[in-house]
Design a protein that fits this description.
The chain has 306 residues and is of the alpha/beta class. The protein has ten helices and twelve strands. The radius of gyration is 21 Å and the shape is elongated.
Amino acid sequence: MTSPRIVLHPSHSRSIGEAFRQAADLDVVLPALDDVAYELRSSSVLVSYEWDDSYLTDSLLWIQSISVGVDQYPMEALRSQGVALTSAKGCHGPQVSEHAFGLLLALTRGIGRSMRNAESGLWKPIPGVEIAGMTLGVLGLGTIGEAVAEKAAAWGMRVIGTKSDPRGYGGAARAVFPPEETLTVFEAADAVISVLPDNESTRELVTPDCLAAMVGGWFVNVGRGTVVKEQDLLEALESGALAGAALDVFDPEPLPESSPLWSHPRVVLTSHTAGLSPHYGSRLMSIFRENLQALAGARDWVNRVN
């Protein structure tokens, strides 16, 4: 099969760039940012996370997003022009679930607080707690959420969670609730990890009542920052409803320098890095090659979202 002309947007990770540069059988163009729209005039495929309306050229047939989130794309315009849009669902489970557990352990074992003390040379032993035997709530039992649930079960945790349609669920969680029962998960959990995407149904889904129901628990967010308001988190930390919060995502991003989260003693922060992995490019390439066949009409699309 002859490769169509493929434009790889310059905003991508090193592993993605390596995967596409090493694919000698593919006709890949690596333009500068200002030249993306120009190259798309004669290309049918775009691999990107970023979007600009100038990218919707007459020759464009398919967009392979390098992320799971696709809210940045103009869905109606793509449908109208018949442009296929596929996501990178399935590429994030291993690394995001590992990162989520790293953040959780940084809270429960006092690692975050110890590192703050280390910056000033302060020797102050901080007792940790054990997560084995705890109940973990996972918000969003999709591909990534299930990877979190499996790791939690291996650590001896009882797992519950939410899923948009709990019917027929057969994963590692012992109890699964619809999103409208998110409060029930917080009431039963010692710790909650959110892997929820950003959409109308998830924005501020984690309410002050949810956080208050934790009664000294831990909250980790590796999904999207819009699921909870920063002020609600800060108030829950100050009231003691939360023993700690660990966050990889924020609203807005980057997190403003003025945010109290930076210096809060019971907060652990990373800069939206949970999804980064040296293996990400190879995972994306596997999906991309299957969808190349779909573009040629030889199979069904993988992760088509429109």
